[in-house]
Amino acid sequence: MSTGSPRARFEPQGVIPAVLLPFDAAHEVDEPAFRRHLADVTGTRGVTAIAVNGHSTEVSSCTPDERQRVLDIALDTVGDRTPVVAGVYSDSTREAAALARAAERSGAAALLVFAPNPFTGGAAARPEMTLAFYREIAAASSLPLVLFQFPMAGGLGTPLPTLLRLAEEVPTLRAVKDFTNHPVAAEAQWRALRALPRPLKVLTSHSSWLLGALAIGADGILSGAGSVIPELHVALFEAMRRGDLAAARAVNDRIHPLADAFYSEPFLDMHNRMKEALVMLGRADRAHVRGPLLKPDAQDLARLARALHAAGLLPPGH
């Protein structure tokens, strides 16, 4: 592997869209449409990596073979120029470790690790469970790890003391995808991670308040919305990096109606809406989702179209 390869040059920072996964009318993976989507997103100047096999690719409804196929298609389509972060999503530590090994063999640049759903039963009170889970994944793969930090209220969040222990005891842990969903908690976590002898990067997933998260000091954006508006995420990130608050606010004013439309209740419809947005923008032909997800209703679609107009992405009359 040359030092110029996407895997070798991966850094957990900048704009990392979590791409969407198109399906055909039979709800099978639409490979040509997926390749087109991957090329569109990574063709945006300033995108530093992409993420697959997470919520945005409807990972919970994909079989193990499909997840491997999704990763393989992404690597084949864009992996020679753009680092690909592979999700590790499993309720089994053993399977999570196997997914990590397979992703490294395939050529992924990093791993985005999701807390297993059994943790909702009280893992916050058993830090040794979280530590063992990440240690086993780290033992299975040398790739950099990005921990998906969930809100604490749902039971999947990693308490800050446990997170700090992970940072100390798992050397390949490089970053946190922050979805604490609370600005005070997000800032406290950021300050603690930056104060470590080996600071961890923070990639915000707070797509409803990106400006605030970047102002706190987030090192990048890792979000499904970036699969629809990567150019706006890049513009916001770069404006904040150069300290141009006026420009950042102007970009945020364009993002705000879309974030409001994508992430309104019911929250589970967010990626369904993003698929519909790609159709409205002419970047996709279909917006099929797999059950139990359903197509947004007419009222939701009309709201989404209004948001695209407000963001300046749809011309009048469309």
Strand arrangement in the largest pleated sheet = 1-8-7-6-5-4-3-2
Mean pLDDT: 95
Count of helix runs: 12
Stretches where pLDDT is under 50 for at least 5 consecutive residues are none
Task: Bin the helical content.
Answer: 40-55%
Globular, elongated, flat, extended or rod-shaped: what is the shape?
globular
Query: Which structural class is indicated by helix and strand composition?
Result: alpha/beta
Could you tell me the strand content as a percent range?
A: 5-15%
Termini separation: 47 Å
SSE order in H/E notation?
HEHEHEHEHEHEHEHEHHHH
CATH architecture descriptor text: Alpha-Beta Barrel
How would you describe what is shown here?
It is built from 12 helices and 8 strands. The protein is an alpha/beta fold and 318 residues long. It has one domain (6-241): Aldolase class I (TIM Barrel). Strands 1-8-7-6-5-4-3-2 form an 8-stranded parallel β-sheet, with helices on one face. Helix 4 links the parallel strand 3 (84-88) and strand 4 (110-113). The model has no long low-confidence stretch (mean pLDDT 95).
